[in-house]
Amino acid sequence: MPVDRLPERTAVVLIDLQKGITALPTVHPAADVVACGAQLARAARAGGVPLIRVRVAFSADGGDVLRAPTDAPPPAITPAPDFAEYDDRIPVEPGDILITKRGWDAFYGTELDLQLRRRQITGIVLAGISTSIGVESTARTGREHGYDIAVAGDAVTDLVASAHDTSLRVILPRLARIDSTAVIADALARG
């Protein structure tokens, strides 16, 4: 369903658009996803809409990294020292709300819900990397918390094409409305 209107109290949530994640080999060029994220950030800031930047980071000793056995381990990467720094192509500005998560879901173990509720936010726009992990996990929890969710379909990508496609075509339409960055940015501007 097209995103013709957003709730009056909406926030934009950019997930894992950070140096270590945008440097990974994604299905769609990360630069394109970051550019769409920057467009959403500009629209949010221009419209007085809260902009929330979410990143994933872990303690130096790695004690907060999940280690449960799985059949498909995460990609084997050695995080660079700047892994958790926000991508400079979307500069952090005063007033941005910065959230650090320790896993996939931007709600779990963070103050995201608290920050939204204290601002009386009822709707969220999601964008970021990766579609099937950070974005989908956050959308699932956001739905359980009762948020009206929109996803900028051209502002998400994944490391695995089939995972991206399943999330965008099967899972996320059951949790959110999906439209283009341009349409969502226009809806943000209209309030």
UniProtKB/TrEMBL annotation:
Q: Name one GO molecular function term.
A: hydrolase activity
Matches recorded under Gene3D superfamilies: Isochorismatase-like
Its keywords, alphabetically, are: Hydrolase
Domain of life according to the entry: Bacteria
Q: Which InterPro entries match?
A: Isochorismatase-like_dom, Isochorismatase-like_hydrls, Isochorismatase-like_sf
Supply the SUPFAM superfamilies for this chain: Isochorismatase-like hydrolases (SSF52499)
Query: What are the residue boundaries of the Isochorismatase-like domain, all occurrences included?
Result: 10-180
Q: What PANTHER family does the record tag this protein with?
A: ISOCHORISMATASE FAMILY PROTEIN YECD, PEROXYUREIDOACRYLATE/UREIDOACRYLATE AMIDOHYDROLASE-RELATED
Under what name is this protein listed?
A: Nicotinamidase-related amidase
**Source organism of the structure:** Actinoplanes regularis
Taxonomic classification = Bacteria, Bacillati, Actinomycetota, Actinomycetes, Micromonosporales
